[in-house]
Input
Amino acid sequence: MRTLIGRIARLALAALALSVFIYQQAPTRVSAQGGAPRNFLPIGPPANLKPSAVPDLSGDWTPGRGGIGQSLSAADMNGRMRGKEPDIPYLPETLKKTMAYVPATGPEAKFETNTDPQIHYCEPPGPAHIYMWPAKHKFIQTPEAVYILHELGPVFQAVWLNAKHPEDPDPQYWGHSIGWYENGDTLVVDTIGLNDRTLLDQMGHPHTEQLHLVERYKRVSKTELELDITVDDPGAYAKPWTGHRNFRLSDTGFLRFQWVCSVRDNKEHFESVGRPANTGETTFK
Output
């Protein structure tokens, strides 16, 4: 009897182990941890990553045209397409959050009712959103990491080279970024571990703590830098979606003026510049 019971127990354990293996291998987006959806895209560098030369990203870079999502170009800064972008695969709750956001631009914008956390609370804008401000950026490339310096803040991001993400990173405003070079001309930045307090852009597109952000920086000429962004967040969007940003080389120098966030300064700027421009009352000549 003991032998029979032992065999049954071993068979049960073997069946359990097999079911766990099949569950892990199955092409499902539901994980074992709380039923949270998995990311659509692999996280980290590709397994067959080839050695690459290091591209020169030096210079002071000013953002040009483009946005997060192809519909959010400089021609739509007032958000006329917000909520109707054909290339943003909203989940229903994400669409509600986006439409509830009150931007700081547009004819109906008011400082008191604007809900941008960076404007009202001086919270960091976070990756992607940082490039929606007219501030310059600078890359410091070392063998250990690439440090991206931002005038706005001023803050910097550390992109760790030849590194891995932690298994369970604590959610933070800038997350945890690793990077690698490809094709001798591109820096790829892979970021996870972000909290859900930041926005993807100035139009209020939110994200969850499941956000996996992939940024590809490519210097296309002596004076031009291109950034392709992929948003991979199954907690907020039905599939990955992309954005594009152009940068031009600046000749005015980096950090000539420290762009420190101040709620008082934000309000004064909105009243003297933002509101008149939004309502057509600007006196600029």
